[in-house]
Design a protein that fits this description.
Layout (H helix, E strand, L loop, with lengths): L1 H8 L9 H20 L12 H6 L11 H11 L22 H13 L9 H17 L6 E5 L2 H16 L4 H4 L8 E6 L5 H8 L7 E4 L9 H13 L3 E8 L11 H11 L2 E5 L24 E4 L1 H4 L7 E5 L2 H8 L32 H11 L1 H24 L3 E3 L7 E6 L6 H17 L6 E5 L2 E7 L7 H21 L4
Helix pairs in contact: 5-14, 6-14, 7-9, 7-13, 15-17, 16-17
Length: 493
């Protein structure tokens, strides 16, 4: 008995030794978090870390405990002041949402509850399914369709394209593999398609050459005539055309393919119709601009990102599949240790049957709470607001002789650059890159750059509920100032 008492006394836990201290620290953290968001506009968008901060991240593995208040002090001093910056109103790099406070609370509560969303009979699983059902409704998908929450757009696209492969393979590809397919498959997308689709082709064992990049028109949308010609050419060469990928918002310029026409082509050619809507699918809920994505509801599968225009804290993606049986049959595996029971915990749905992860985080709560707080109509208005802001910036660029628009502004992405007198493409790239870097280093704004039709340009992607038109006025003023300063320091510019 004495030895048993000694063993019990030696048991350890990760729970706080003093819950009162934990409560006090938690209140302090919450107060700091509110201040952090409330004052975000007053801070630099981004700033370089000093050497002493960088060295902090090279400290050795901790062997012994430290007071959690000291641990939080380290975070407050070395992590929180040096973010990527995407919650800032003047962060327009790449394409990211700006998060929201209620969603952050949802993430915290999800972590506190700690549920694994692989499946089972519990509230988190039901809430996850409810959020997926809400996504179906937003996209105009039938209630009988299927879906799953994933890490983001790349994984959501892989889910849809994997179901397409299995549906069009002509064999049981899960059992026999891609080598058993009677004909090699071909997928089609515009030459503006996101790079994640190449990764998908490689991961699916089809190879990069299985994805044919189709030329685009003047609006950078897929050329339908060229698409039909490529399909016919591939059939003649012994390939099996399997899937066409419509882009609802290209990463470079925000171009939106004609989804209605692509749905018609897919039906005529017996192709799976997948829509990469990670940038623009949610325009379907925007009252003014929803016609831009007309036809998305006809897709066989859609990839979209709640962590963009629903502003869920990272990470949260979603894949929707019209044919629920095809979706489940692509991924479902039932090992003996995950069999269902008529009652109890294992009587719920196994959500891992719809994707690659067995263990899944409780991503749904942060989306659910923000939608409940604000309502889907407000998110739709915020999308319209961002698109209107992009058009406003476009107008500023078009009226400023020193700036040049590089592609049509379709949705909320503006591609442009600062002009140079008699500047070669190489000099223009160096000049505009320097402007972009100085905007970042001075904490003014975060832009990214890209290449459109072989010409380098800067890129503003406004997917931010905190952005105001005055921020765009500031951007133009500061670009012009920096342009003058750079040219004055280097007259050859």
């Amino acid at each position: 008995m004495d030895s048993l008492r000694e063993l019990t006394a030696a048991d350890e836990t990760l729970d706080p030794a003093d819950w009162a201290d934990a409560e006090a620290l938690s209140h302090r953290i919450l107060d700091d978090a509110i201040t952090y968001l409330k004052d975000v506009r007053e801070r630099p968008v981004w700033r370089e870390m000093p050497a002493e901060v960088r060295s902090f991240f090279k400290t050795p593995l901790p062997r012994s405990p430290a007071p959690v208040a000291e641990v939080y002090d380290d975070v407050a001093r070395n992590v929180m002041p040096y973010p990527m910056g995407n919650i800032h109103p003047r962060f327009w790099s790449w394409y990211m949402g700006a998060s929201n406070f209620t969603g952050a609370l949802g993430d915290f509560l999800a972590a506190i509850q700690g549920s694994n969303l692989g499946g089972g009979n519990h509230a988190a699983g039901l809430l996850d399914s409810q959020v997926v059902n809400w996504m179906k409704e937003m996209m105009g998908f039938p209630a009988t369709s299927s879906g799953t929450l994933v890490s983001g757009g790349s994984m959501a696209n892989i889910i849809g394209l994997t179901v397409a492969r299995n549906a069009k393979a002509g064999v049981d590809v899960r059992e026999r593999g891609v080598a058993a397919m009677p004909k090699p498959l071909r997928y089609y997308a515009s030459d503006q398609v996101h790079s994640c689709h190449r990764k998908a082709m490689e991961a699916l064992g089809l190879g990069n050459r299985a994805l044919r990049r189709i030329p685009t028109d003047a609006g950078l949308r897929i050329d339908i005539g060229a698409l039909k010609a490529a399909i016919a050419e591939d059939r003649e060469a012994g390939f099996k055309p399997a899937c066409v990928i419509g882009t609802a918002g290209s990463v470079n310029t925000g171009a939106v393919d004609d989804l209605q026409v692509l749905a018609k082509v897919a039906a005529e050619e017996d192709l799976w119709f997948h829509v990469d809507g990670c940038i623009g699918a949610l325009i379907a809920i925007a009252p003014e601009n929803r016609p831009l994505v007309a036809g998305i509801q006809q897709a066989d599968s859609i990839a979209l990102d709640p962590h963009k225009w629903l502003h869920a804290p990272f990470e949260a993606g979603c894949a929707l599949v019209r044919d629920a049986a095809a979706h489940r049959n692509t991924f479902a595996v039932t090992p003996e240790y995950l069999e269902s029971t008529p009652r109890g915990l294992a009587s719920g749905a196994w959500l891992h049957d719809y994707g690659l992860q067995t263990s899944r985080g409780f991503r749904a709560l942060k989306i659910w709470m923000a939608l409940k707080e604000h309502g889907v109509e407000k998110f739709g208005r915020l999308i319209d607001q961002n698109i209107a802001q992009a058009r406003y910036l476009t107008g500023l660029i078009e009226t400023e002789p020193a700036l040049e628009l590089m592609a049509p502004t379709t949705i909320n992405i503006v591609s442009f650059r600062h002009r140079l007198d008699d500047g070669s493409e190489e000099r223009l790239k160096a000049f505009n890159t320097e402007i972009m870097l100085r905007l970042q280093e001075e904490g003014i704004a975060a832009l990214s750059d890209t290449t459109v039709h072989g010409r380098h340009c800067l890129r503003v992607a406004i997917a931010n509920h905190r952005t105001r038109r005055e921020d765009l006025d500031l951007l133009v003023r500061e670009m012009l100032r920096l342009g003058r300063e750079i040219k004055a320091a280097a007259p050859s510019m």
